[in-house]
Amino acid sequence: MYRFPEDSKLYDPDFLFGVATASYQIEGATNVDDRCPSIWDTFCAKPGAVYKQHNGDVACDHYHLYQDDLNLIADLGVDAYRFSIAWPRIIRPDGTINQKGLDFYDRVISALEEKNITIMATLYHWDLPQYLDDQGGWLNRETAYKFAEYVEVVSSYFGDRIDFYATLNEPWCSAFHGYRDGKHAPGIADEKSGYQACHNLLLAHGLAIPILRKNAENSKHGIVLNFTPNYPANESAIDVADFADQEHTHWFIKPIMEGKYPEEVYQHYIDVMPLISEEDMAVISAEIDFLGINNYTRSVIDKDGQYPNYKKVELSDVERTHIGWEVCPEGLLKLLTDLNQAYSLPPVYITENGAATDDKVIDGAVDDEQRCRYYQSHLSSVDQAIRKGVDIRGYFAWSLMDNFEWSEGYKMRFGIVHVDYETQERTPKRSALAFKETLASR
What we know:
Blueprint: E1 16-20, H1 23-26, H2 39-44, H3 62-76, E2 80-84, H4 87-90, H5 99-114, E3 118-124, H6 130-133, H7 142-158, E4 164-169, H8 171-180, H9 191-215, E5 220-226, E6 230-232, H10 238-258, H11 263-268, H12 278-284, E7 290-294, E8 299-303, E9 310-312, H13 329-342, E10 348-352, H14 369-387, E11 392-398, E12 417-420, E13 425-428, H15 430-440
Parallel strand pairs: 1-2, 1-11, 2-3, 3-4, 4-5, 5-7, 6-8, 7-10, 10-11
Antiparallel strand pairs: 8-9, 12-13
Helix pairs in contact: 3-5, 7-9, 8-9, 9-12, 13-14
């Protein structure tokens, strides 16, 4: 059981506890019911792009096992489920609507409604239809308008049945991993492409917000951003750590909150900046009802030659998870309080937080002791942030179950439920049982 002070807001029944997943990571069924290929299907087929050339063809077979998985969610006693809707299941290459795709999510949403579970749907969790990538993907401004058309279809169909709509998940990853360093689909490594993709993604978000308001006026609408706070390795690195925060944190939140990009970063990268109009910034800064924040770790930064060049420093005397990320709950607290001080934030939801551990099923159980400690310490940071004035309304554990971990394939397990990929058997881990006990005690 996770324990907090008796007066903690985390014990309030209106504080939303949830679990989160993403379509390509769990659904499988990539060739079922007229789903068209996505950039991740293509990327996984490239030799060397993904660990052991794993792919999402089967994943957790959630497309067929969704009813069992939703029963599992209900059994844990969580309040909410965050999942993503797969664009390639909804819009065909010729622009027509694939009703079979809408029907699948209708079945999921209906089952959640029956269980009285709050629904948060992410409209883009990285699985861009391949036919749009063939036309330039997020380097093509037109993709932002195609996203708006897709959002119109989904939100007019489901309306207020979805309680929370998140436009994008982690545009930092889509833009910088997808187009700047090539670690994610579509695998482009080019500075200018990274910033062009970023701007078009944020434009897509801004175009979507008024459509969502029109079609689901009683729902909440926002975006999910990932942040890794940057700590200086020493006193002489304070300035470059701040620049790293401007480049990786504020570059994504500032245009949404204030309608402008960080000036110092813009000027430093002026030669690779896309054409940005004032009209774009007005669109991007459309008011949002909530901000989803994803956080897992921190970075330690040192100077690397002339300012503002910097490099990451790997500390040797820190605890790390299986994926190699430092366990740093105080980083989450610092992030939340710093953002709250810098911006006039809407209500905040921690939409992803969790740990990869090397889990094994032994005698029918999984004792993920490190993950339990991780959740306890990070939830305590959330509790402290609320006490310091941050308006945090909910927390979603990443992830409901082990799944396809992008370029890491199936090597990394983030789930609170273990998945045997051969048999598709689900086994709740100790961390899941601790959530169940904690939620039952509220």
